Amino acid sequence: MKKRLLGAILSTLLTVTMATPAFAEIIWTADKLPAGYTTNELENKDFSFYSGNAIKKDTYTYYVKDLQGNFMKNATFAGGSRTDGNGAFIYADGFVPSFGTKDVETNYILSQPYEKDTWRQDSSKSTNTNGISNNWYGDSKTSRYKCNWAWLMVAPDGKKDGLKYAYCFNEYGYLYTNTITPDGYMVNEFGQLMIDGKVKTINPREIIANYNNYPIGHLIYDPVTRAQREQTPNPFF
């Protein structure tokens, strides 16, 4: 994937307060998903939904994967959700999502009281550590996004102007801010995607095509990137 040339741009368009992190190569390949695991079928087709998640098919148990496709074991995520020694996911309230079947999973989800996803802050963390903030997005059980770009209409400070902005979240669900993302994009101090030195926005009232969630490394932000993604099979499968 293409890497952006950063030198002159960084010095003139965005003040980066830390050294650019040295990210490992992003690898979304089929061999990184062991036999017996799957993800959402729709993700296979359009790069949407949860790029960092996997499901063990025989038990329908959730697992979490990092940017290199490895299972994240004994990890703690934004909001207090975590994984055990095998990489199986555990909600912040202690519930283990191991449903056995898709139908049982669906019934569980429908039985839960509705809780709106919102921006939240982890007061135990710094507002910016090497380009990663303490902001995350989700409900009280788990952060919504891991290893994901998300087009959202609400900023971390709660402001709304009717436009969508792209935000990038790391493997643990925290927002990248004032840095360069693992796939080479610039984000400002609010975590918003910048293209050619300007904050990139989508007006949902003017643009028919939907912009939602994309794995890091497969962001769609205009018709050109959409065409590129649609012409290339999802490398995760």
TrEMBL record:
Q: Which UniProt keywords apply?
A: Signal
Annotated signal peptide: 1-24
Protein name listed in UniProt: Cell wall-binding protein
| Lineage, highest ranks first | Bacteria, Bacillati, Bacillota, Clostridia, Lachnospirales
Organism of this sequence: Lacrimispora algidixylanolytica
